[in-house]
C-alpha cells in the first residue's frame, strides 16, 4: 500500500513539474478579464488615425490583434494614454486610487491594419503567481474601415 501511494505521489509531482515554469513550481491557471477601452468591443469602421489600442489596467506586456485570416499583429510598444480618449470607446472604470477623470490603462502603439478586417484583441500580462511567466486573455474584437 505504501509503495502504491508513493508511486501515485511521484506521478502527481511529475505532472506538476511538467506544467511548471522550469523551476519545478506548478503554475496555476490565472483568470483575468481583459477590458478593452479603445476601440470599444464590437466597434466597426475603425480608422487607423490613432494607431493605438487601449486596455484597462496596468501590467500588460504585449498586445496581439488576430484577424480571421492572415498574420497576427503584435505590439510591445507602450505609449501614453491620450486625453481625451479616441472614439468609440468603452467607459473605463477608474482605479480607486486614481484622481477623478484619470484613465488607468495601457495604450499600445499598433502599425496600420488591413482594411475591412475583424481583429480579436489579446493581451499578455505578467503573472501574479510569483515565478510563473505570463497569462494571455481575450475578450474583445473590432473591425477596421
Task: Give the SSE layout.
Elements: H1 2-18, E1 36-38, E2 52-56, E3 60-67, E4 73-75, E5 78-79, E6 105-109, E7 118-126, E8 134-143
Antiparallel strand pairs: 1-2, 2-6, 3-4, 3-7, 5-6, 7-8
Overview of this protein structure:
This protein folds into two domains: 1-29; 31-143, Immunoglobulin-like. The longest helix is centred in the N-terminal third of the chain and has 17 residues, at 2-18. With 145 residues, it is mainly beta. The chain starts with a helix and ends with a strand. It has one helix and eight strands. It has a four-stranded antiparallel β-sheet, with no helix packed on it. Strands 4-3-7-8 form a four-stranded antiparallel β-sheet, with no helix packed on it.
Q: How large a portion of the residues is in β-strands, by DSSP E?
A: 25-35%
Contiguous helical run count: 1
Shape: globular
SSE string? HEEEEEEEE
Largest sheet: 4 strands, antiparallel
* Tally of separate domains: 2
Name the CATH architecture of the largest domain.
Answer: Sandwich
Indicate the low-confidence ranges by residue numbers.
Answer: 1-21
Amino acid at each position: 500500500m505504501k509503495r502504491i501511494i508513493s508511486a501515485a505521489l511521484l506521478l502527481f509531482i511529475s505532472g506538476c513539474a511538467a506544467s511548471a515554469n522550469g523551476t519545478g513550481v506548478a503554475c496555476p491557471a490565472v483568470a483575468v478579464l481583459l477590458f478593452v477601452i479603445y476601440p470599444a468591443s464590437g466597434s466597426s469602421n475603425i480608422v487607423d488615425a490613432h494607431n493605438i489600442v487601449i486596455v484597462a489596467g496596468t501590467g500588460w506586456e504585449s498586445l496581439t490583434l488576430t484577424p480571421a485570416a492572415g498574420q497576427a499583429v503584435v505590439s510591445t510598444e507602450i505609449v501614453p494614454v491620450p486625453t481625451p480618449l479616441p472614439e468609440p470607446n468603452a467607459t473605463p472604470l477608474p482605479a480607486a486610487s486614481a484622481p477623478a477623470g484619470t484613465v488607468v490603462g495601457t495604450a499600445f502603439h499598433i502599425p496600420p491594419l488591413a482594411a475591412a478586417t475583424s481583429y480579436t484583441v489579446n493581451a499578455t500580462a505578467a503573472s501574479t503567481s510569483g515565478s510563473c511567466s505570463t497569462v494571455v486573455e481575450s475578450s474583445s474584437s473590432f473591425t477596421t474601415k
